[in-house]
Amino acid sequence: MAAELNFSPPEVPEPTFLENLLRYGLFLGAIFQLICVLAIIFPVSKSHDGEGGHFEPRKFEVTKKPKGPAPSQSKKSKKETKKKR
User: Fold this and answer.
1) What does the pLDDT look like over 2-39, one tens digit per residue?
2) For the chain, what is the largest distance between any 2 Cα atoms, rounded to a whole number of angstroms?
3) Basic and acidic residues compositional bias: what residue ranges (predicted)?
C-alpha cells in the first residue's frame, strides 16, 4: 500500500517567454501605480531659484466661447414655417 502513494511534487512546465513578459509587466505596472499613489499622498513642492518660498495662487479666468454668427433670416423663416404647421 505504501508503494502506491506518490509523494513527489507534480510536474509544472517551465513558463514561456510570454508568461514571463506578462509577469514582469504586471510587476512594473504595480510599481508605477504605487509611485503615482505616493506622489498624490506626498506632493513635492516646486520652488524656483529666485522666489525663495513665495507662493501666489493662480487665478483662473473663465472665458466664454464666442457664439457663432446670428442665424440668417432664411433659417429663421424656415423654423417659423415649421412651427406654424
Assistant:
1) 567 888 888 989 999 999 999 999 999 999 999 999 99
2) 101
3) 46-64
Q: How far apart are CA 21 and CA 25, in angstroms?
A: 6
Q: Contact 23/15 with Cβ under 8 angstroms?
A: yes
Of 34, 36, 54, 58, nearest in space to 46 by CA: 54
Question: What is the C-alpha to C-alpha distance for residues 15 and 13, in angstroms, rounded to an integer?
Answer: 6
Kindly report whether the global pTM for this prediction surpasses the value 0.70. no
Across the chain, how many H-helices and E-strands are there?
Answer: 2, 0
Instruction: Region of 26 please: left (phi>0), alpha (psi -120 to 50) or beta.
Output: alpha
Handedness of CA 74, 78, 79, 81 (dihedral sign): positive
CB 16 within 8 A of CB 10: no
